[in-house]
C-alpha cells in the first residue's frame, strides 16, 4: 500500500479549519450546550505540590480536577518559535480551577466552558483524578482534535471526569501550540536555538509528558504506566509522538483514532511554506527575527490565508508529495525532532515494544459533508456518483466503483460514496498502520472500527449521520449522557443503548491503559491484529470481532 491516500499534516490542517461548523448550534445540532453536570461548581479540592509550586483544584462529581496547570514556561516574545522551557516557579498556592487559554485561533473553535481567550502562552494541562492519594493509577494523556490548527483541552465533550471516576484512572489533556506558531519551520534560517521549530506543537506534548513523569504520582497516577491517545488531529499528533525520541521515554502505549498520521510534511514543503510566510509579511530571510515582533493576530490572519493554497502540484499526482500536498502548518520530518515519517515506510523502531490501538469510524464522511454544506452528497444518483468519482479518482474510479458495488450490492449511490470517502479519510490509513505494526513483530496492535449509529439526520437531508467522524469522542470518554440543555438531544443521540456503547468503549480504552490489552466485561475478547486473520473489533452497544472486514475493499486500496 505505498500510494494510497493517507492522513497527512495538510489533511489534518484542513480538517481543523472545517471542524467548527459541525460543533456548534449553527449546524443544527445543539449538542455542545452543556447541562453543567460535568463542570458544576465543586468543593475545594486537594492541594498538590508540583515541581514549580503548589496547585489547588476542585472536587467535582467524584473526581479531583485541576485545570490550567502550567507544564512549561512562556513561548511568546523572545521565546516565540523556540522549544518550551521549564515552568516559572510560583510562591504560595495557585488556584487550578479554570482552564488555561487555548493556542492562538479564531474565537469559538475550542468549545470550552469558562475558557479564557486564546493566547500564545498556552502550555497548560487539565488533570482529572479519583484522588490525589499516591495510588499510582494508569495515566491516560489525550491530545485534542481540530487538526493542527484548532481545539483545546477544555472541550466539554472530552471532559475526563467519568472516564477517570468509573475506571479508576488519571486523565490528562494538554493545550499546546497550533498552526503557524506551532509548526513554522525555521531550522535552516534561524540556527540551533530554533532546531525542531517545525514540530514545536507536538514537542510541547512531549514536554507535558516529561512533566507528567515528574509530577503525576502526587495526583494519584503512575508515571510508569502512561498511555497517549487522540482523535483526528489528536490521532495524527499521537502518531508523531510514537515516532519522536524526546517523547518515547515518557509513555508506554498509544491509541491513534480517526487520524492515522502515516506521513508528515517534508522539509522541502516546509521550506516553501516558510518562504511564503516571509514574503507575505515583507520580511527578508536575513531579517527573520522580525517574525518575533509581528502581532499574533496578524500571524493568525496569515495562517488562515495560506492554509489552503496549492503547493507544488502534488495533488495532481506527484506521488512523492503524498502527505505534503499543500501549504499549511503541521509537523515537519526534520531529521531532528521527528527523524522519520511516523509510519512510512515502516513503524518507528523506538516504539517497537509499545502496544498500539488504531482504528476509525465507519461513516467518517457524513461529518465532512455536513460541515461543508454538501447536501448533494446525500442524495446522489448513479450518474452524479460517477461524476464525483471521475473527478476525485480520475485514474481508478471505474475499478473503485466496481469493487464497492460488488461488495455492497444493496447500497445506494450515496451509501457507496460515504463508504469510499470514509475509507479514504482514515480507514485505509488505519489499516496500513495496523499492517505495518503487526509486521514489525514487536508489541501487539489492536484494530477497531467504531460502528455506533447516530440516529439524527444530516441537517436538510434524510440521510442519517451514522458513525460520523468525532462521534467516538463522547463514547471513549463515556460522555454519552448529560451533554444537553433545555431538552435538546445530547451529542450521542437519544438511543438507550448509547449508555452501553459508551461503557464498552471507555472500558476498553481504560483496560488498555491499565494492562496493554483492551477488554471489557460482557464483550468478546479483542485479539491482536495479524496479517493472516486481521481481527478487528467493531465497537457498539454489542461489540463484535470480525476477521478482515470489507476484505475486497481493503485489497482494492492495496492494489491501486
Can you describe this structure?
The protein has 560 residues and is of the alpha/beta class. The chain has helices at 9-18, 161-167, 179-183, 187-190, 200-215, 233-242, 267-281, 296-306, 364-372, 382-392, 397-407, 413-440, 471-476, 498-515, 551-559, and strands spanning 43-49, 54-60, 63-70, 93-95, 124-129, 137-143, 170-174, 221-231, 253-257, 356-361, 445-450, 454-457, 464-466, 535-539, 544-547. A hairpin with a 6-residue loop joins strand 12 (454-457) and strand 13 (464-466). Mean pLDDT is 90; it is low at 1-40, 309-326 and 484-488.
What structural class is derived from the secondary structure elements? alpha/beta
User: Which word captures the global form?
Assistant: globular
Residue runs with pLDDT of under 50 for 5 or more positions = 1-40, 309-326, 484-488
Instruction: Profile the largest sheet.
Output: 13 strands, mixed
The name of the CATH architecture is 3-Layer(aba) Sandwich
Written as H for each helix and E for each strand, in order along the chain, the element string is HEEEEEEHEHHHEHEHHEHHHHEEEHHEEH
Distance from N terminus to C terminus (CA atoms, Å) equals 8 Å
| CATH level-4 homologous superfamily | Alpha/Beta hydrolase fold, catalytic domain
Return the average pLDDT rounded to an integer.
Answer: 90
In total, the number of domains comes to 1
Instruction: Give the helix proportion (percent range).
Output: 25-40%
Number of helices: 15
The fraction of residues assigned to DSSP E strands is 15-25%
> What is the C-alpha radius of gyration, as a whole number of Å?
22 Å
DSSP E strands, number: 15
CATH class: Alpha Beta
Amino acid at each position: 500500500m505505498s500510494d494510497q491516500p493517507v492522513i497527512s499534516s495538510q489533511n489534518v490542517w484542513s480538517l481543523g479549519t472545517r471542524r467548527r461548523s459541525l460543533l456548534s448550534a449553527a449546524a443544527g445540532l445543539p449538542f455542545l450546550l452543556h447541562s453543567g453536570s460535568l463542570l458544576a461548581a465543586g468543593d475545594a479540592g486537594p492541594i498538590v505540590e508540583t515541581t514549580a509550586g503548589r496547585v489547588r483544584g476542585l472536587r467535582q462529581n467524584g473526581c479531583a480536577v485541576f485545570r490550567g496547570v502550567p507544564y512549561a514556561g512562556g513561548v511568546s516574545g523572545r521565546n516565540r518559535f523556540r522549544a518550551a522551557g521549564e515552568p516559572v516557579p510560583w510562591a504560595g498556592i495557585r488556584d487550578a480551577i479554570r482552564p488555561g487559554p487555548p493556542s492562538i485561533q479564531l474565537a469559538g473553535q475550542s468549545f470550552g466552558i469558562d475558557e479564557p481567550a486564546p493566547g500564545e502562552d498556552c502550555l497548560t494541562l487539565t488533570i482529572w483524578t479519583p484522588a490525589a492519594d499516591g495510588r499510582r493509577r494508569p495515566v491516560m494523556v489525550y491530545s485534542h482534535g481540530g487538526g493542527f490548527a484548532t481545539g483545546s483541552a477544555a472541550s466539554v465533550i472530552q471532559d475526563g471526569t467519568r472516564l477517570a471516576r468509573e475506571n479508576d484512572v488519571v486523565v490528562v489533556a494538554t493545550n499546546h501550540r497550533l498552526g503557524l506558531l506551532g509548526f513554522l519551520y525555521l531550522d535552516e534560517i534561524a540556527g540551533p536555538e530554533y532546531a525542531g521549530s517545525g514540530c514545536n506543537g507536538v514537542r510541547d506534548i512531549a514536554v507535558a509528558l516529561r512533566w507528567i513523569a515528574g509530577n503525576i504520582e502526587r495526583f494519584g497516577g503512575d508515571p510508569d504506566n502512561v498511555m497517549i491517545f487522540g482523535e483526528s488531529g489528536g490521532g495524527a499528533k499521537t502518531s508523531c509522538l510514537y515516532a519522536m525520541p524526546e517523547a518515547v521515554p515518557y509513555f508506554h502505549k498509544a491509541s491513534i483514532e480517526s487520524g492515522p498520521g502515516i506521513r508528515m510534511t517534508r522539509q522541502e514543503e516546509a521550506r516553501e511554506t516558510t518562504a511564503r510566510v516571509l514574503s507575505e509579511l515583507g520580511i527578508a530571510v536575513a531579517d527573520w527575527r522580525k517574525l518575533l515582533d509581528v502581532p499574533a493576530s496578524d500571524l493568525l490572519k496569515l495562517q488562515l490565508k495560506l492554509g489552503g493554497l496549492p503547493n507544488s502540484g502534488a495533488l495532481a499526482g506527484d506521488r512523492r508529495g503524498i502527505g505534503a500536498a499543500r501549504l499549511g502548518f503541521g509537523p515537519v520530518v526534520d531529521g531532528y525532532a521527528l527523524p522519520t515519517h511516523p509510519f512510512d515506510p515502516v513503524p518507528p523502531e523506538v516504539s517497537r515494544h509499545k502496544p498500539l490501538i488504531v482504528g476509525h469510524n465507519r461513516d467518517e464522511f457524513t461529518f465532512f459533508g455536513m460541515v461543508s454544506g454538501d447536501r448533494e452528497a446525500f442524495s446522489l444518483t448513479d450518474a452524479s456518483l460517477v461524476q464525483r468519482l471521475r473527478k476525485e479518482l480520475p485514474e481508478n474510479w471505474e475499478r473503485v466503483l466496481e469493487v464497492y458495488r460488488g461488495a455492497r450490492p444493496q447500497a445506494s449511490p450515496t451509501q457507496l460514496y460515504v463508504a469510499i470517502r470514509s475509507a479514504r479519510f482514515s480507514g485505509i490509513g488505519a489499516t496500513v498502520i495496523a499492517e505495518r505494526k503487526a509486521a514489525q513483530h514487536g508489541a501487539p496492535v489492536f484494530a477497531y472500527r467504531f460502528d455506533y449509529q447516530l440516529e439524527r439526520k444530516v441537517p436538510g437531508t434524510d440521510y442519517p449521520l451514522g458513525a460520523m467522524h468525532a462521534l467516538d469522542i463522547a463514547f471513549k470518554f463515556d460522555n454519552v449522557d448529560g451533554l444537553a440543555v433545555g431538552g435538546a438531544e445530547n451529542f450521542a443521540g437519544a438511543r438507550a443503548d448509547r449508555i452501553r456503547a459508551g461503557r464498552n468503549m471507555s472500558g476498553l480504552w481504560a483496560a488498555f491503559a491499565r494492562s496493554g490489552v483492551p477488554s471489557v466485561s460482557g464483550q468478546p475478547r479483542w485479539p491482536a491484529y495479524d496479517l493472516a486473520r486481521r481481527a478487528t473489533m467493531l465497537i457498539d452497544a454489542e461489540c463484535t470481532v470480525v476477521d478482515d472486514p470489507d476484505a475486497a475493499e481493503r485489497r482494492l486500496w492495496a492494489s491501486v
